[in-house]
Write a structure and sequence with these properties.
- It contains 1 helix and 29 strands.
- With about 400 residues, the chain is mostly beta strands.
- The longest helix is centred in the first third of the chain and has 15 residues.
Length: about 400
């Protein structure tokens, strides 16, 4: 009889144990940071930004602490991730004047929630080791639901652990996993890669798509070929002027871009380079310069901009952190020909880096708006800029 009672007790415990991980605790109600956000308060020295003729810059939003990755929903909500702040924001321009007049802090206290993506009414947020999903988010900006944990088995290392995420043309979520070091041969296959995750069947786990990528914090797909383009931050401590950071082009799955054996397509790593020659790997589409830290990128697609920008690539360079003479801190335009080859680069927006190596802002990510303007996030100035073209002299 005692054995039978013990069996019933164990059965009850087993049946009450959930088979899936519990949902994350619900976040506190969102804070409406500002009811009215003027286009430009004058706090930021936008007059220092130099653009090609006919282009202008203002602010879409200010006081957006540590603004990093951007994602615009079809409904017009701009979601903003952060790295150091641990917050995710939602901004809306409800009156169509080109500036956010509603700004919500959706959730706080996350682990480097840099990446944001949107699909079918849900916001996806990437922390270091997991992907969260907030369902029906636009109807609940003031009181977001508890997130669902989509997948939580990515590595936990913070070094290059912050992630940029985006849904590809195949409907899968692309998630990079940076190298857990400056330079090393990672012990796990998943490091220094771009993966993709089927968010409808996350139990399958991530699939490695591209390899040999030290740290990408920005990628996109060609509107013509559908092929993947991404930035990669070069290794440190090989000198002031090498190796270059890279703009890369993956024409197919399964390519290897050199890390940790080869840098910028032609520099053998002094520690690991003897193991594999540079000829084994896919060379960069464009070397962008040493330590410029390229992050977000977008293909030109605005019908309001001159035709010379269509299907060309704009890249946000966050800027160097350990170079004696600073480099980067700008937007550059990479020229792409009809065969999908990069033929060179040129400055597009400069002025965050001033003479004397004075820095007042660091561009991070780019996002097109329906009116043809381009948004640019800045995690140092805590701002999101709006660049537009009207042809006026």
């Amino acid at each position: 009889m005692r054995l039978f009672a013990l069996f019933l007790l164990l059965l009850a415990i087993a049946c009450s144990t959930p088979s899936t991980p519990p949902a994350v605790a619900p976040p506190p109600p969102s804070t409406l940071v500002s009811a009215k956000a003027p286009a430009y308060t004058g706090k930021l020295p936008l007059e220092k930004i130099k653009l090609p003729e006919g282009f202008h810059i203002t602010t879409f939003a200010e006081d957006v602490k540590n603004a990093r990755s951007l994602c615009l929903s079809p409904g017009g909500t701009l979601f903003v991730g952060t790295r150091d702040a641990g917050n995710v924001y939602a901004l809306r321009d409800t009156n169509g004047d080109g500036a956010a007049d509603e700004q919500f802090t959706l959730i706080t206290g996350l682990n480097m929630p840099n990446g944001v993506a949107f699909r079918n009414g849900s916001l996806f947020v990437a922390e270091v080791n997991r992907i969260l999903r907030f369902d029906d988010i636009e109807k609940n900006l003031a009181n977001p639901p508890a997130p669902v944990v989509v997948y939580d088995q990515y590595p936990t290392e913070g070094h290059h652990g912050w992630k940029y995420i985006a849904f590809g043309p195949d409907g899968k979520l692309y998630v990079p996993v940076g190298a857990p070091c400056n330079i090393c041969e990672p012990e796990k296959e998943i490091y220094a890669t771009i993966t993709r995750l089927d968010v409808d069947h996350p139990e399958k786990g991530p699939e490695i798509v591209q390899r040999g990528i030290r740290n990408t914090v920005g990628f996109t797909w060609s509107p013509l070929s559908g092929e993947l383009w991404f930035t990669d931050n070069g290794r440190d401590w090989l000198g002031e002027d090498e190796p270059s950071c890279e703009l890369n082009h993956a024409r197919q799955d399964g390519q290897h871009f050199g890390y940790p054996y080869c840098h910028q397509g032609n520099i053998k790593d002094p520690k690991f380079g003897d193991k594999r020659p540079c000829s084994d790997f896919t060379a960069p589409a464009q070397n962008l310069g040493a330590h410029v830290a390229p992050l977000g990128l977008e293909f030109g697609k605005s019908a309001n901009w001159p035709a010379a920008y269509k299907n060309q690539i704009l890249v946000a360079e966050h800027g160097s952190w350990n170079r004696a003479k600073k480099s980067g801190y700008q937007l550059v335009l990479a020229r792409i020909d009809e065969k999908g080859n990069c033929t060179g680069q040129e400055p597009f927006a400069v002025g965050w880096l001033q003479p004397g190596d004075e820095v007042w802002g660091r561009p991070v990510d780019l996002e097109w708006m329906p009116d043809g303007s381009l948004l640019v996030s800045d995690d140092q100035a805590d701002a999101i800029y709006r660049i537009y073209y009207d042809g006026a002299k």
